[in-house]
Structure formats: structure tokens, C-alpha cells
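We treat protein structure as text, and this decision shapes the records that our systems exchange. We quote a single record here, exactly as it is kept in our systems:
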Amino acid sequence: MSAFKFLRRRASAWSTAGGHVLWICGLVSLISLAGCNGAPSRSLVDVKGTLQACPPSPNCVCSEATDPDHAIEPIRVLGPPEEAFQKARDVIRGWNRCSIVRFDSDFLHAECKSAVFRFVDDLELELKPDRHEIAVRSASRVGHSDFGVNRRRVERLREALIQAGLATPEAQPR
């Protein structure tokens, strides 16, 4: 039995006014959730070679941001920057519900999905070998708040690189 026939049969079974309202609300909810993956991030790296700025909503962090709501420190690299960047890729590959969409010698873009509703967040890393750092941006595609998920994701990556001896927890002046 197709889903449409099932819903139509259910709709006729819910013959009360409350039943129709419930059926319509359920259908609208399903349609709304179907579009919640959002469009792919347009950010990547802009024409100046830096990560795009965060939107005004609080669901994004970026090491290029200057305002305290969106700002996060870049990952300070110890040793060869390329080695730390490769390790960052390996760490992200090991995360559940994250897949790497693009990986170049100096740029990584991964899509990370939330556990329940499968909302997609974009995680972007830009290697800056001359500064011995990895610039980071993590942003939700939809919604307003992310309850700190993007900031925790970046800090989780930073901690993995610190544990591997490839990054330092100390902030350095820019």
C-alpha cells in the first residue's frame, strides 16, 4: 500500500473536525521537516582566500570573526602544518555522521549531520602554513540557534590535535 493511499484512508477514518486538523498539521510538519537539510553552504573560501563571515544568527563560529558571539581561536599548529592538517582530516573521518566533501592541500569542507533530525552543519578548515595555524569555521545551514554544537565541534577537533601533539592550547597574539 502506498503512503498516499494510507494517508487518504487514515484521513477518511478521522472524520471529526479535530481529526482533519490533526491530519493537516501532521502533513505540514512532514513537509517542513523534509526541507530542513538546507542548501549547501556557499561559504567555502571567498575570493580573498579567507573563510566567509558568520551570519548574524548565533549558530556559527569562525576564527576570522571579530565579534565575541562568533569568534573562536584558530588551531595553533606545532611541527609541520601539513601533518596537522592531515591529522585533522583523519579525525573528522572518524566522527559519526560527518563526511568530507572536499579536501585539498590547504582546504577541507565536511558536512556533519545532527543525530535526530539530520540537520546539516558545514565544517571548514583552511590551512595557513606561514602562520602555523588552521583557520576554522563551523556553521549550521538552517535554524537560529545551535545550542553551542558548532563551537563544541571545533573544540573537539582542537583537543584531538592537542592530544596527538600537533597543536597547542595556548592562544597566540595575531
